[in-house]
Amino acid sequence: MESSREKLSAFLEKHLHDFLTHWRRHMYISEDDKYINHIEQNGIAVFQLVKEALEGSLQPSEIQALAEKVAKQRAEANINMGEFVYNTNFGRSLVIRYALKSGLPIEDLQLLVDDINYLFDQFLFYAITKYTELKNAEIQEKNLFISQSHKDRLTLLGQMSSSFVHEFRNPLTAIMGFVQLLKFEHPNLKYLDIIDHELQQLKFRISQFLHASRKETKEQQKGVIFLEQLLEEIIAFLYPSFVEADVEISSSIDPEASVYGFKDQLKQVFMNILLNSIEAVKEKDKPRQIYIRVSANQEHVHVVISNNGPMIPKETVQAIFEPFFTTKKLGTGIGLYVCKKIIEDHDGQITCTSSEQLTSFAISLPLKKENSLPV
């Protein structure tokens, strides 16, 4: 005698054409779906799984194999997975609707419908899991490509800057030498101080590129650096810029705060941050203020350079140390990147915070005492 499972399987097979016609009419299909001709075949394949489940001959591996095949097609077609889920669940509802028309006793149908639902749930689980896995791998591959492209750009920057900047260094050194000679021979000659200051600024910018290309480290010698002396030298050097921008600068520096490292590199960091601070406060009305605070504990020296310029947006703060990132029309985007690199090379950390009141760059460096210097 024919069982309820066999009767339902035969009934659904008999109405397969009607089922597929209804399903095609109401499903969602993108016109640019590269696998559009496979969708009906996949629907028929799922229908065959339903029949095998009803007949008791279905293997779980068959569900997974078909689900992963369809998921791969959906991923390659780059189509919204929501369409697939909708079409699958719509097919499920049609199968159940036709099952209810089979005339089988309701108590038999309840068990069979549970089996059908379980099949579709398993199918969707395997398909979505595989789709997610494939998309995550695709994203990872794209991120790897972006990361490699980013490294290639940095390599190109190093190659370009080391060759391009060295072409400027020799004539710049000669010009600076002749300016010093003119200052000695004609101490009252106008504008020499301004020319000298601008040439020093240019030398500073060249040093940024040279450090980015890692060409200068071997030319320098490490030593003990007292930050009070270093920062006073920098403030004196930048004094014309403070006056021009009408900036008030105040400082509180622990005279015992010292670090062990490359003086020129750390000078480059503090100068870059101070120059950026001057540019920032120019964008607001007076008073324009910059604060320098240096303190030391038993382990670290903490330097905080703050300004009362406009607040930096949160998304900008998060990217401010990335190479090539700049908000300036003529900026190169390497200044703060080089600062971060120098500080990290000195086993330190640099961070930026910004509010409506203050924007601060905080630097932490290992404290070096006389009895802790390398032998």
Automatic annotation (TrEMBL):
GO function term, MF aspect, one: ATP binding
Record keywords, A-Z: ATP-binding, Kinase, Nucleotide-binding, Phosphoprotein, Transferase, Two-component regulatory system
PROSITE patterns: HIS_KIN
InterPro entries for this protein: HATPase_C_sf, HATPase_dom, His_kinase_dom, HisK_dim/P_dom, HisK_dim/P_sf, Histidine_kinase_N, Sig_transdc_His_kin-like_C
Gene3D superfamilies: 1.10.287.130, Histidine kinase N-terminal domain (1.10.490.70), Histidine kinase-like ATPase, C-terminal domain (3.30.565.10)
Domain Histidine kinase intervals: 163-369
Reactions that this protein is recorded to catalyse: ATP + protein L-histidine = ADP + protein N-phospho-L-histidine
EC code: 2.7.13.3
Keyword Phosphoprotein appears in the UniProt entry: yes
Name of the featured protein: histidine kinase
Native organism: Anoxybacteroides amylolyticum
